[in-house]
Amino acid sequence: MTDACIRAVVESIHSSPTQAALGLLMSVPGASNTVLEAVVPYSRMSMIQLLAKIPAKYCSQQTADEMALLAYNRALKLSSPGSPVLGVGFTGSLATTRPKQGDHRFHLSTRTSDRHWASTVTLSKGLRSRDQEERVSSYFLLKVCDMYMYIIF
Length: 153
Known about the structure:
It is globular and about 45 Å long. It has a single domain, classed as CinA-like (Maf protein), CATH 3.90.950. The chain is 42% helix and 18% strand. Strand 3 and strand 4 form a beta hairpin.
């Protein structure tokens, strides 16, 4: 995905009436029109406080689903009544400085008033750097959000 393509996708999302809680969208002007809030629970304690419990697994589809539902409910509270909102949950276990025992993967979940969508992507271990794995997961997240702008109406 080229930078111009990424920008076009983000601008497309910003130009829609749907509001989402995704930090990635803040890189293009117009974020204040669509991003209500972005919460990135990076540490275990942050995740525990967000979910109000200790998750069975921090990096799992279930955790991403719970995060999406929380984001959706929070977006409802922050938006104007009747506004369409999108909650997104994302967890990942990507390349790091130490060897990982499990797969490099990420889990994405989205929630609207009438739809729930979930996906798990497993990356080939050792094929990409951390930066490259972050790009793959970020592009995937952007494409899913862009797709939702056209599905929920």
